[in-house]
């Protein structure tokens, strides 16, 4: 039995924006197990040059990601939506173990099943080295 993860498709502007904000809030917890619950058991990902399938692989990927991307803070914005698909632009900031700060910009394409679980995520991301004084994101937005 699959549990629904509202909002469910087909999306309206309001429900797509809620889905994006829910994703931002979840990712800012930096809890791989919590984040993975938004994806179907067989969800397919492309993240930069990494391809993976399934929740277990997502948890493993996110665990490694947040072990190296310290003080991670993310902002996501709705770009477009249609039916069961949402396009998102985002940026996040983090520092590495050497203390170098990074701002990462990207776009994501999401596809959902009828239960509101993401079945496909494709992310293209570029990184820019920044100084600590150049930071714009100083933690998650207050949860709505």
Distance between the termini: 29 Å
Give the radius of gyration. 15 Å
Spatial arrangement of strands, main beta sheet: 2-1-6-5-4-3
Largest sheet: 6 strands, mixed
Give the averaged pLDDT, no decimals: 96
* Total DSSP E strands: 6
Strand content: 35-45%
Sheet/helix structural class = alpha+beta
Large-scale geometry = globular
Low-confidence stretches: none
How many helices? 3
Helix and strand sequence: HHEEHEEEE
Helix residue percentage:
25-40%
Characteristics of this structure?
NTF2-like_dom_sf, Nuclear transport factor 2 family protein, alpha+beta, DUF1348, 3 helices
Question: Can you walk through the features of this model?
Answer:
- By secondary structure, the chain is an alpha+beta fold.
- It has three helices and six strands, in the order H-H-E-E-H-E-E-E-E.
- It has helices at 13-29, 32-36, 55-68; strands at residues 39-47, 50-53, 70-82, 85-95, 101-112, 118-130.
- A six-stranded mixed β-sheet has the order 2-1-6-5-4-3.
- Strand 4 (85-95) and strand 5 (101-112) form a beta hairpin.
- The longest helix is centred in the N-terminal third of the chain and has 17 residues, at 13-29.
- The protein starts with 12 loop residues before the first helix and ends in a 14-residue tail after the last strand.
- This is Nuclear transport factor 2 family protein.
- It comes from Streptomyces thinghirensis.
- InterPro entries: DUF1348, NTF2-like_dom_sf.
